[in-house]
Amino acid sequence: MEVTKVINATRDFKIGEIETHALRGVNLSIEDGEFTALVGPSGSGKTTLLQLIGLLDQPTSGQVFINGQDATRLSRNQRADLRKGTIGFIFQFFALIPTLTAYENVEMPLLLNGTKPAERKARANEVLKAVGLSDRAHHRPDQLSGGQQQRVAVARALSINPKVILADEPTANLDTENGKQVMDIMQKLNKDTGVTFVFATHDPRVISYANRVVTLQDGLITKDSKVNGKS
Amino acid sequence: MNQLFKMAFRDLGRNKRRSILSALAVSIATTLLIFMASVVRGEFRGALQNGIRLQTGHLQVRATSYDENKVSLAWEDLIDNPAQVTDQLNALPQVADATPRLIASGIISLGDKSRGVQVLGIDPSAEANQIFRQGVIAGEFINSDDREGVLIGKPLAERLGLNVGDQVNLLINTSNGDVDEQPFTVRGIYTTNVFPYDQNTVFMPLTKAQAFAAAENHASLIFVLLHDQDQTEPVADALSSSNYQIVTWQDLNELSVQFEQFAGAYMVILYLIILGITATVVTNTLVMAVYERTREIGILAAIGMKGGRIMSAFLTEAALLATGGVIGGLILGGLITNWVSSVGMVVPATQGVTGILIGDKIYPFIVASDVISLTITAYVITLMASLYPAILAARMEPVEALHAQ
User: Fold this and answer.
1) Which CATH number do you get for residue A65?
2) What pLDDT is recorded for position A186?
3) How many other C-beta atoms lie within 10 A of the C-beta of residue A73?
4) For residues B190 and B141, what is the distance between their CA atoms, to the nearest angstrom?
5) A126: in domain
6) Position A67 in a domain
7) Which domain holds residue A19?
8) B201 strand-pairing partners
9) Which of B9, B295, B303, B306 should we substitute to test contact with A (largest number of A Cβ atoms within 10 Å)?
C-alpha cells in the first residue's frame, strides 16, 4: 500500500530577487514498509522533498498525498494534525527539547496525540527500550551522547506508531560507531514493526542500508532503484 | 496542561538571571502600584480625618441662611443661644460631643508684619476641642474666662516671630459690619501637624470672640462629633426637621472627595507608565526567548504541536513569570507600605488646597480593593505583554524555524 505519493511537485524559493527552483517536477511513490534513501549532492532537493512529504512545507505546484489524503488541500492546523498521527521525524541535529528528559521527549508526540497517561507511559518506555535507552530515560539531552540523543529522537519518532518516519541526514553529526548503531536500530525497527523509513543522506555507509535508493539532482529524480537482495 | 507548566517552568530556569530580572520588574511594578495607591489613599484619608477632627466635625448645625464662604456674622445668619441647641444635641446617644463655634475672618499683625487669619471662638472645655489643648507645644491652652489671650499655630508664630507672652493686634469684621481691633497676648502655641490649618487659625474663648465680634450670645455653628461616623446620615435625617441647616462631613469635604477622584485619574496615568515599562521588559524577555528557541519551536511544530499550543506554552511561561512577580510585589509592597504607614512619610510643609487639610506626615493606607484591582491589572498587562512574542512563536513556519541557527 502507498504511504506517500508526490505528483509533479515543484518548489521554488525566492530570496531577494533571486528565484531558486529546489524541486522541478518530482514524482515519487513510497510503499508501506520501504527503507528508502533519498540521495544526491548538496542542493539536489533531498531535504526539500523530505519536508514536502513530511507536510512541513507546501509545494509551489503539484500534489502530496499521505495515506491517500491530498495534503496540499489542508490548512496549517490540519497538516499539523495529520503529521502528529502519521509522520515521525528524525533530524540531522539532535532535535530534542533540552528542558525535557529523554522520557518526556519521547512522550511529547503522544501527549499531543491525546494518548491516555497509562498508555503513554507504557509506549514511551517500550520505544525507549527498543532503542536501548531504558536506563537513560530520565536523563536530559545534555547528559546524553550524540548517538544516544539521536536514538531518543528515533524513539520519539516511533512513539506514535507512525506510517512513515522521515530522517534528514540522521547520521551526519555522528561518528562511525554511533552512526552505525542508529542505522542498525532504524533497520531493525523497519523489519520488526514494518514502519516505513525515508531518509535523506549522501553518506555511502548509510545508503548501503537502503532497499531502495532514489537519486536526485538539480531538483529532479534522476534514478530510482531497488537494491537487490533486500526486502 | 501539566506538561505545559513543567516545560514553562524549566524554560524559565534556562536563563535564571534573565527570568529573575523580569519577575523582579513585575515585582517592583506591583510594589510601586500598591505603595502609590496606599499613599494616595492615606493622604486623602488623613486629610479627610483632619478635616473632620479640626474643621467640619461629622455634622454641623447652622442657621439656615449661614453661608460658610462669606463667614457672615450677621445675627440672622447665626445660631441664637447656642448653649441650648448644644445641650439638645449632646442629649442624643449618637453624639460624642457638640460644641458651638464662632468664626470670624481677621488680620493678625505685629509691627509691620501681618497675616490674614480665621479667628475661632471655641469652648475650651469642650471634648471636641481637647485636640487643640493636646497640641499645645509652648505656653498654655486658653481658659473660658480669658479676655485677652489667644492661642496661635506654630507656623504663624514662626512667621511673625511670636513667642508666648508676646502682644499682637487682631483685627476682625464684626457682626454690625464694622471693623474692630484689639491687642491680645499669645497664651500658647499649638500644632495639629496640619500646616495650612495651624498657619491660619487663631483660637480665643467663645465668650471673648462673641464680645469682640459683637455677636453677643450667638455662634456660627455647632460642631458635632459622633461616636460612629457611619451614624452621620441617620442623625442628620433625625435633625432635618429642626429650624436649622444640617450639614454633613460629606457635604463639607466635597472638595477633598473631588480632589481624590482627580488624583485617582492622575494616578492612573502614573500606573500606566510603570506598567508600560514593565510590559516592555517582559516583552523583551520573551521575544529573546522566542528567538533563542526558534529551532525548538520548529521541532515542536514538526511533531504536531499546533500554533495555539505553542502560543499557550509562551503564555504559560509569562503567567508563571507574572505569578512570581506579582506575589513578590504583594509581599514587598505589603511590607514597605505597612512599615511606612507605621512611621509615617514626611511631606514638606504645604500651603495645601483650601479645604483640604493635608498633614505633615502621610500614613499610607492599604485598601483591599486597590490591591486586588492593581494586582489583577499588573497580572493582565504582563500577560498582554507576552501576547506579541507568543503570537510570534505560534506563527513561525515549521520549516523555517527548523533551519534557524
Assistant:
1) 3.40.50.300
2) 85
3) 10
4) 8
5) yes
6) yes
7) 2-226
8) B118
9) B303
CA-CA-CA-CA torsion sign (B75, B80, B83, B88):
negative
Segment B122-146 mean pLDDT: 92
What DSSP designation does B53 have? I
- Tens digit of each residue's pLDDT (9 = 90 or more) over B288-314: 888 888 988 988 888 888 888 899 989
Residue that the C-alpha cell 507548566 belongs to: B5
* pTM for the structure as a whole: 0.73
SS3 labels along chain A = CEEEEEEEEEEEEEECCEEEEEEEEEEEEEECCCEEEEECCCCCCHHHHHHHHCCCCCCCEEEEEECCEEHHHCCHHHHHHHHHHHEEEECCCCCCCCCCCHHHHHHHHHHHHCCCHHHHHHHHHHHHHHCCCHHHCCCCHHHCCHHHHHHHHHHHHHHCCCCEEEEECCCCCCCHHHHHHHHHHHHHHHHHHCCEEEEEECCHHHHCCCCEEEEEECCEEEEEEECCCCC
The continuous run of DSSP H or E covering B122 comes out as strand B113-122
Asked if B305 lies within 8 A of A80 by C-beta distance, the reply is yes
Eight-state DSSP code of residue B334: H
Radius of gyration, CA atoms only, chain A: 17
Phi, psi of B345 (to 5 degrees): -110, 120
**Distance of alpha carbon A215 from alpha carbon A202, whole angstroms:** 10
- Here the cell at position B344 is 509615617
The per-residue pLDDT for A10 is 93
Per domain, the residue ranges of chain B are: 2-51+256-402, 66-222
Of A51, A95, A108, the CB nearest to B399: A51
CB contact under 8 A, A95 and B299: yes
HSE-CB for B140 with a 13 A CA cutoff: 6
Beta bridge partners of A26: A9
Q: Maximum Cα–Cα distance for chain A, whole Å? A: 53
As a whole number, the mean pLDDT across chain B is 88
Q: Report yes or no on A153 lying in a domain.
A: yes
Rounded Cα distance, B184 and B107, in Å: 12
Chain B residue numbers with beta carbons less than 8 Å from the beta carbon of A56 are: 301-302, 398-399, 402
Q: Closest chain A residue to B309 measured between Cα atoms?
A: A112
Residue A231 lies in a domain: no
Spatial distance between the Cα atoms of B22 and B330, rounded to a whole number of angstroms: 16
Determine the Cα–Cα distance for residues B225 and B53; give it in Å rounded to an integer: 8
The ipTM value here is 0.86
B57-71 pLDDT, tens per residue?
Answer: 999 999 988 877 777
Chain segment A72-109, per-residue pLDDT in tens: 889 888 888 888 888 998 888 878 888 899 999 999 99
- Pick the closest to residue B353 from B68, B37, B119, B43 (CA basis): B43
Q: Decide if A74 touches B, using CB distance below 8 A.
A: no
Q: If DSSP codes are grouped into helix, strand and coil, which group holds residue B262?
A: helix
Residue B404 has what pLDDT?
67
For chains A and B, CB pairs below 8 A equal: 68
Contact B151/B189 with Cβ under 8 angstroms?
Answer: yes
**Counted domains in chain A:** 1
Q: Which three cell numbers stand for residue B159?
A: 512667621
> What cell numbers appear for B40 in the block?
494616595
